[in-house]
Amino acid sequence: MDHVETLECTLCGAEYDPDQVIYTCSEHPGVKGILEVRYDYDEVLDRFDESLDGDVRSQWKYRAFLPVADDVEPVTLGEGGTPILDAPRLGTELGVDLRVKDDGRNPTGVLKDRATAVSLTKAREFGIDVVTCASTGNAAASLAGFSARGGFDCRLFVPGDAPEGKLAQPLVYGADVLGVRGSYDEAYDLSMEVTERFGWYNRNAAVNPFQVEGKRTVGHELAEQTRGEVPDWLVFSMGDGCTIAGGWKGFREFHDLDLVEETPRMLGVQAEGASAIHDAFHGHDDADEVADTVADSISVGRPRNTVKACSTLEESGGESVLVSDEEILAAESLLGRTEGIYAEPAGAAPVAGLRKARDAGIVDEGESVVVVVTGNGLKDTKSGMRAGGEVERIDPAIGDVVERYDGGD
Ligand SMILES: Cc1ncc(COP(=O)(O)O)c(C=O)c1O
Ligand SMILES: N[C@@H](CCOP(=O)(O)O)C(=O)O
């Protein structure tokens, strides 16, 4: 990998060989010593011979930017290359010039597929065939799907009360799904213990340095797709904080390389019941470590990428807001009925956050905004039913329909 220089500890700057399996800095174990991939950009640009014409079929258009060896066949289901859609009806409702990047259209229905493809390609490169992760559900389903595709043995740690769709999906993909009686944070700790004991390859974005590299392709894509009309704001939801950090890393990288002229401000959205990054960004370090929100994917009590997420907000001149469960469900319904996009609660939270930011005067009327929908609603139909309302039951007779639409006969 001539284009990858090193893995660097974000805390002390210690450097590590990128051709080895390593999670965090040996001097700073745990999430304090997260390693960052450093590239030789002359080499990267030498390899990048694509034109930035807005035509993105998959994230592998940016292979030159990914930390994978040239001679390894990627494990892929065609992830990335998701559309940016104009959202005029929702934009009018929120008073902004709005576009939506629908990453729920990824192969397993979630933005995480970008990262999973990169980490399984690394597992293939390292010759490891058992993989694992802790997950609120999406990362697990994603890892299971790509494991099936690449022929890996997949062992997952997921809170047992995850939405059913997120448990059914990895089961159908043939993974071992271990439903942990506890929270995502507890499942995460267990998966780390297991990784140390059994040597399985761990996908957790918090510690696997290659994950955020995959997630950053959403930033590359956003930069390419909005070139010439870069939005004032880019909105993401935040759980552990890796996704927003990845989106920013990719966008800023293209800007630093003069591939795009401007950068957006980043708006991070958390749920009131899982607010640790927002609290840290606003100088409060007494956040409740017990997470509780309908948006299960961002129901994280101890986010592992708080530092990265806060630097993203700071560097981009951004902000963060909190939204209630009611606001998230209302946003899920609003997004669906105005633009025909069905998001899970964490995917709709940015819409709720944008409304909050408008009300708070953070985002001004008429500014241009791209909201990133990170996950598809079909995985969590229970929340969808709460957001969408009741099904009206009728008899299979014309009379009930006439009464409904004609006000009686
Ligand atoms: C649909 C969805 N949206 C948002 C997030 C938040 O991403 P992160 O935990 O990297 O902040 C996740 C998972 O983490 C997710 O599955
Ligand atoms: N909410 C996430 C948490 C783990 O995902 P990661 O990509 O940050 O490791 C999930 O979907 O499980």
Automatic annotation (TrEMBL):
<dbReference type="GO" id="GO:0003941">
    <property type="term" value="F:L-serine ammonia-lyase activity"/>
</dbReference>
<dbReference type="GO" id="GO:0006565">
    <property type="term" value="P:L-serine catabolic process"/>
</dbReference>
<protein>
    <recommendedName>
        <fullName>Threonine synthase</fullName>
        <ecNumber>4.2.3.1</ecNumber>
    </recommendedName>
</protein>
<dbReference type="InterPro" id="IPR036052">
    <property type="entry name" value="TrpB-like_PALP_sf"/>
</dbReference>
<keyword id="KW-0456">Lyase</keyword>
<comment type="similarity">
    <text>Belongs to the threonine synthase family.</text>
</comment>
<dbReference type="GO" id="GO:0009097">
    <property type="term" value="P:isoleucine biosynthetic process"/>
</dbReference>
<dbReference type="GO" id="GO:0009088">
    <property type="term" value="P:threonine biosynthetic process"/>
</dbReference>
<dbReference type="InterPro" id="IPR026260">
    <property type="entry name" value="Thr_Synthase_bac/arc"/>
</dbReference>
<feature type="binding site">
    <location>
        <position position="374"/>
    </location>
    <ligand>
        <name>pyridoxal 5'-phosphate</name>
    </ligand>
</feature>
<comment type="pathway">
    <text>Amino-acid biosynthesis; L-threonine biosynthesis; L-threonine from L-aspartate: step 5/5.</text>
</comment>
<dbReference type="GO" id="GO:0006567">
    <property type="term" value="P:L-threonine catabolic process"/>
</dbReference>
<keyword id="KW-0663">Pyridoxal phosphate</keyword>
<feature type="modified residue" description="N6-(pyridoxal phosphate)lysine">
    <location>
        <position position="112"/>
    </location>
</feature>
<keyword id="KW-0791">Threonine biosynthesis</keyword>
<dbReference type="InterPro" id="IPR001926">
    <property type="entry name" value="TrpB-like_PALP"/>
</dbReference>
<dbReference type="InterPro" id="IPR004450">
    <property type="entry name" value="Thr_synthase-like"/>
</dbReference>
<dbReference type="Pfam" id="PF00291">
    <property type="entry name" value="PALP"/>
</dbReference>
<dbReference type="GO" id="GO:0004794">
    <property type="term" value="F:threonine deaminase activity"/>
</dbReference>
<keyword id="KW-0028">Amino-acid biosynthesis</keyword>
<dbReference type="InterPro" id="IPR050147">
    <property type="entry name" value="Ser/Thr_Dehydratase"/>
</dbReference>
<feature type="domain" description="Tryptophan synthase beta chain-like PALP">
    <location>
        <begin position="75"/>
        <end position="375"/>
    </location>
</feature>
<dbReference type="GO" id="GO:0004795">
    <property type="term" value="F:threonine synthase activity"/>
</dbReference>
<feature type="binding site">
    <location>
        <position position="138"/>
    </location>
    <ligand>
        <name>pyridoxal 5'-phosphate</name>
    </ligand>
</feature>
<comment type="function">
    <text>Catalyzes the gamma-elimination of phosphate from L-phosphohomoserine and the beta-addition of water to produce L-threonine.</text>
</comment>
